[in-house]
Amino acid sequence: MTRLLARLDEDPIVRAQLRELAARTKMERYGKGVFLRGLIEFSSICRQDCMYCGLRASNKQADRYRLKPEEILACCAEGYELGYRTFVLQSGEDTWFTTARLTKLIREIKSRFADVAVTLSIGERDDETYELLYEAGADRFLLRHETASPRLYAKLHPTMTIESRRSRLLALQRIGFQIGAGCMVGLPGQTNSELANDLVYLHSLSPDMIGIGPFLPHSNTPLRDASQGSMEKALDMISLSRLVVPDALIPASTAMGTIHPQGREKALQAGANVVMPNLSPLAVRPKYAIYENKICLGDESAQCRHCLELRIRGAGFEVDMGRGDSLKAQRQFMRQET
Fold first, then answer.
1. Among 3, 13, 20, 231, which residue has the least CB neighbours within 10 Å?
2. pLDDT at 162 over 80
């Protein structure tokens, strides 16, 4: 795999063949549909201090915010009216949102909108919390592993360990969540061998969702002067992820659209099949600045959905507003029913 990654950098024909194979594999599994998820970034407060992230606890310049539960529910209501049937609740590791507050919020969402899936992206918690969140009705949990390299992980995450991150993913999977992992591409000092290890790790974990995106520097972090990741390399990793975990759901991320005007469309054509429009209130969107110059900060939710539909169709795909469970999860549902 390491040699293949190196060859992709050198041979555009091999790169084109990889993208074609990944696109064909995605079509065989999921068809032309692209699932839309309503993203709600509900808190920019974080206790961790990741070296690349604008939300890191040490960034005293960050303009922090925290949505109230009723504001989150209002975002869900707006999204539901627009047709979304999956809500992604994402935040920094904000301890104000205790287990009790989160479970109450999830139950309320499920009570008001019975046919939706709830995805959480809130970082590391203990087993008991994860179990209670699952019992409350949360369906999925995104927890990118960021890098499978112990060397890079330790360098970039001074308040965390790679062992803890991996154990949390396994705990979520054991409890019953559809889990999402994934990595950044183009981290300072990252090698092809380390990216190959990311693919090996993803294959062994077999997650339901894989988030791949380029490293984008933030001016208020220690990595402010580092070069951003390569879009082509990120697309290579999306295509390779599609091949090593063919049943996974793979987002065409906002970071891809930030690094290139057609980045999300290129990701869809390289094997991705999920897009996550932002449902957060317009006033807080600029404050959720993991990286800078993020796109679509000023688009109303309805405008954002319409724009993405046009982009998705223009790239040769179709919008699917269903829950969009992974094929792996669908098979598990069928086994449970029988």
1. 13
2. yes
